[in-house]
Amino acid sequence: METTPLRIGVLGGGAVGCYFGALLARAGHAVTLIGRQRTVDAITAGGLRLRRNDIDETVSVEASTDPAALGNTDIVLLSVKSFDTETAARQIAPHLPPGALVLSLQNGVENPALIHNIVAAAVMPAVVYVAAEMTTAAEVTHSGRGDLIIGTQALGGRSARCSAQTLADRFALAGIPVRISDNIDGDAWEKLAMNCALNAISALARARYGQIAGFGPTHALMNEAVDEVGSVARATGVRIPVDDLRAAAARLAQAMTRATSSTAQDIARGKRTEIDALNGHIARLGERLGVPTPVNRALHALVSLQEQAS
């Protein structure tokens, strides 16, 4: 197996990008993080600290506010919020070298195609399962899972130097489990269902996943939300790989019992959320297809109102 260190860029200095970037840097890869000035200054001054139940280390990564710093990368982990995808793709498009691979580590189901329409590089769809939070500007704290699902082939995949199998092998050596899927669209919709079940309720109730699943009324609300996602998916022709989305949501909540959603974290910090790409996407698509989605519509409306008030 090839073991030459990869040159990895991370666009987005949030918890997802910092968590995976820190693990890859810890494994010896050359990681460059593009983020906001506050994050860049903190990482430049003292490194990036990773806290997990089995790890408490500070790793060295390059940090910059300039996307041009990605001009010599093999893989770019694009981990910005869904509403920033188009802007981020346009920022990096002029700087990506031939053969680079962009890995979309984002919520929602529309980002890989959007990135592919903007950049010349190959774009790999991915599904991310991790609970992590930026506890300071240069410290990421992990609280659950940390694995990826990727497609068998990138969009524009013939131009990529790094194949799906190579990526999976190299990430595994860094402690990042990666599964290659021949139904990545279905996997992305399964993750969307999990987000629709948990993110908004976590934000509205200020609750952890274990609390949500363990309380009868919110567990029932989870079930209704994922039922609607399943109905919309069937109407679009997407094949979600699990037969029982309700059970899958319950398992996820049990596996990440201490986690709070990224939506809850954004609300707490007065930031814009991704609710439009989650419950909002289901509500809009359901309306277009004639599929009722009252629970997702309500959750979207309530989080949107809370977002405006924060």
Written description of the protein model:
The protein has 310 residues and is of the alpha/beta class. It has 2 domains: 7-182, 3-Layer(aba) Sandwich (Rossmann fold), CATH 3.40.50; 185-309, N-(1-d-carboxylethyl)-l-norvaline Dehydrogenase, domain 2 (Orthogonal Bundle). Helices cover 45% and strands 20% of the residues. It contains 12 helices and 10 strands. Strands 1, 2, 3, 4, 5, 6, 7, 8, 9 and 10 form a 10-stranded mixed β-sheet that branches. Helix 4 links the parallel strand 7 (101-104) and strand 8. Helix 6 (184-205) packs across helix 12 (294-309), helix 8 (216-236) packs across helix 9 and helix 8 packs across helix 11. The longest helix has 22 residues, at 184-205. The protein is globular, with a radius of gyration of 19 Å. The mean pLDDT is 95.
Summarize the structure.
The chain has 310 residues and is α/β, with parallel strands linked by helices. Helix content is 45%, strand content 20%.
| Cα-based radius of gyration, to the nearest Å | 19 Å
Subunit organisation of the chains: single chain
Helix content range: 40-55%
- How would you spell out the order of helices and strands? EHEHEEEEHEHEEHEHHHHHHH
Give the CATH class of the largest domain.
Answer: Alpha Beta
Mean pLDDT: 95
In the predicted model, the low-confidence regions spanning at least 5 consecutive residues are none
Q: What profile does the largest beta sheet have?
A: 10 strands, mixed
CATH architectural category of the largest domain: 3-Layer(aba) Sandwich
